[in-house]
Design a protein that fits this description.
Low-confidence stretches: none
Number of domains: 1
Structural class: mainly alpha
Helix content: over 70%
Shape: elongated
Distance between the termini: 24 Å
Strand content: under 5%
Length: about 120
């Protein structure tokens, strides 16, 4: 059971990063508002990141990692990613492109830092 959760967690994390990069690319290249394809990428990025967090939390408790820092780092990354994603989308709709780019860059940065920490396992 733990092995399946871990594979699901890793697979969703691998999916979340390119979707978030895709959303950031839409933010950088888009004009005012957003189209249907950008909404799909946005929802995919947020959904895959959220599911990564849920499977990671379950795997942490199943694998005995609950007392370590991994669940907290993941929690900060997932919540921060969601908040920054909502902010970037709101700024895109309001046609404030520079603020949307900053929020999308924060999303990417949060995922990259969490990915680096989780793969290096220093804690």
């Amino acid at each position: 059971m733990y092995a399946v959760l871990l594979r699901a967690h890793i697979g969703l994390a691998v999916l979340a990063l390119p979707l978030t990069l895709g959303w950031a690319a839409f933010v950088v290249t888009a004009s005012a508002g957003s189209g249907r394809s950008s909404r799909l990428v946005y929802v995919g990025a947020l959904a895959s990141t959220g599911l990564t967090g849920v499977t990671g939390l379950i795997a942490a408790f199943a694998g005995g990692f609950a007392a370590m820092a991994f669940p907290w780092i993941g929690f900060v990354a997932v919540v921060g990613h969601g908040v920054a994603g909502a902010r970037s989308r709101r700024e895109m709709v309001a046609d404030r492109k520079s603020a949307a780019i900053v929020a999308a860059a924060l999303q990417v940065l949060l995922l990259l830092v969490a990915y680096a920490v989780m793969t290096a396992k220093p804690l």
